[in-house]
């Protein structure tokens, strides 16, 4: 008789694992944000900041990566749309501050 490994896990252990992943995600977002701000400083106008075609290119790439890694493409797309939207807002504030 085999034991289900999930049954031996505790909710606290699972939450600790999620918290550790969240720390890595936030570090990666910070790295990404630095590059986004660098890119923003190279753009000439707000149209280049918004770049809807580039947004869709990034979304499609992220969806493909999600599929390759066994993640839900819909969840990844939603997360990326939120991340990109917030990044665009940050870039626009930087751009307007000049």
UniProtKB/TrEMBL annotation:
Signal peptide: none annotated. Residues 5-95 form the Chorismate mutase domain. InterPro entries: Chorismate_II_sf, Chorismate_mutase-related, CM_dom_sf, CM_II_prokaryot. The keyword Aminoacyl-tRNA synthetase does not apply. It comes from the Bacteria. The keyword Transferase does not apply. It holds the Pfam family CM_2. Keywords: Isomerase. This is Chorismate mutase. It comes from Leucobacter muris.
